[in-house]
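Subject: sequence -> structure tokens, single chain

Hey, anyone have a minute? Need the predicted structure for the following. Not urgent.
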Amino acid sequence: MTSQIWTISAVVEWSQLLLNSFRHWIGRELLERAGDRASQAHALFLSPFVVVSHGMEEDPLLNYGNQVALELWGVTWEDLTRTPSRLTAESTNQAEREWMLEQAKTRGYLDTYRGVRITSTGRRFLVENALIWNVVDAEGQRVGQAARFSQWTWL
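Reply:
Had a minute. Here:
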């Protein structure tokens, strides 16, 4: 198990942005919001579904992945947060991935997304019924994008 990533102040803050932005766009909570911000960050990190996000760099880097995401992609937190988001898809699937991200950017979110992704070891999997949303700060400015899914099939 990864050491207590959820206790890092930047992770606690980003977790709040993920949760608040999900509620903003989707109109419901991503998970039950019990306890303080640190407790919510812990619950998000240990949630039974994948949550992954990236920032706003020119070639956006992944900046969050919960425990299920780390296990699925077969990476450590340190490796995940150094990975360009585009590398979660094979080059042949990157145009489709870009289209999906643009749709979510324009509308605020995209539900029922389906696409092929690739792990750090090159193993492919099909994601189904993913929800992609824009991460916004307290002023409503877009600061990233995130995804949540619990359905995937190894290919």
